[in-house]
Write the structure tokens for this entry.
Amino acid sequence: MTSIDSSENLGYYSIFKKTKLQRVSDGVEEYIFSDCITEKRLLVIVWPQLGDFDSLEYAWWLQKESKLLTDKGIKIRAVGIGNRSSGEKFCDYTGFPAVDLFVDPEAKLHSSLNLYGGLSLKIPGLSPTQNAWVNLMLMCAGIGSPGTLNEVLRGYKGDRQAPQLIQDEEIIHAKPLPPIRGSFFAKAGGKGFQRPLELATLRLRNMTEVLSNWKTYVPDASYMTQRGATFLFDSQEELLYKYQDKGILGFAANMSHPLSFLDTIGLFE
């Protein structure tokens, strides 16, 4: 677990407490910690673009573990880069509660938290958006984005250290592939762990969703390389855990079990 000193704790909590952004559920500009003062534990997730594959995949894991998070008294607040339309689309697709999601069109919170902005090469003659595309493609190739290529490969080859992601009865629609029943992965690789192509199929579904609704998910492509972070506070405003993304497909310290940091502090025992 990342070592945390008291100055970090006060700095991060103070930044969040003073941050006012648009809430997706009603469009009201509100403090992101409103109605969170009495919460036992507060998990704050700062996502990159809401159309970023990391944001969609992280939200999938939160939905997968939603009952356990609720049972452990963990309240979630999330901020993503985009506008309210981006947020509504994101929540419709992922099932993430719109009341817990705030949008930051210009990544100002990310800047305040000093999060990794991604590769930032500036090629003369290109616009900020064009430069962002170049930098994003380079990051997808692993440049300025450590671990990305290995994580892409893990999605294809499977991972016996990760849980099974798709149940036998589920039907996965990931165009251009035909609908795939979950039992296909059982026949191809077994059960009880992440089988070959299983995660890659879920990522393809996310990619299809985003590319089909690109302008909604990514109203300003200038921030495509910006990465996010995860913070966990207790009821005394103490920072229990933090993780800052280092690259694409690197939104957790343990991508096989993205929420396993909760085990390290005894919350999932």
